[in-house]
Amino acid sequence: MAALDIQISVEEGDWPPEEELQALSGRVLDAAADFLVKEEGQPFPGEPPELSLVFTDDQSIRAINAEWRGQDKPTNVLSFPAFPITPGRMPGPMLGDIVVAHETLKREAAELEKPFEAHLTHLLVHGFLHLFGYDHIEDDEAERMEGLETRILARLGLSDPYGDRTPD
User: Does rRNA processing show up as a keyword for this record (predicted)?
Assistant: First the structure.
């Protein structure tokens, strides 16, 4: 199984205790890494690569989104790869950062009628794939990335977040 060194920071928001976030994140991201290695042939460094997770609120993620993406609004998740990477290439020792906003995540989970933890799991997988160079700007990229998300989430016992795919 692919191993990760996950650093967590709970900065703002009404998040579950850090120990719960660490356990959930470890389970989810290790499963995603394992999937990329075994199913997608993703090369992985010998030492566990590091990534950081920042759990924050809408106000903080809005400022980050405005500064880095020019969008002055909150969003659910942002990913910042440490190094540019093409999907399928060897990542470096530091994968990057994933930032998640509590209020947006909670609101979306309610709108989707999904448990908070299930939606958080999806956003962690989504953000993690961005660290490996996957994107959803172009239709073909989106189809590939969403397909990977669906297959990883199915392995974690969750349904297709896009509602129209059957996992392989």
Answer: yes
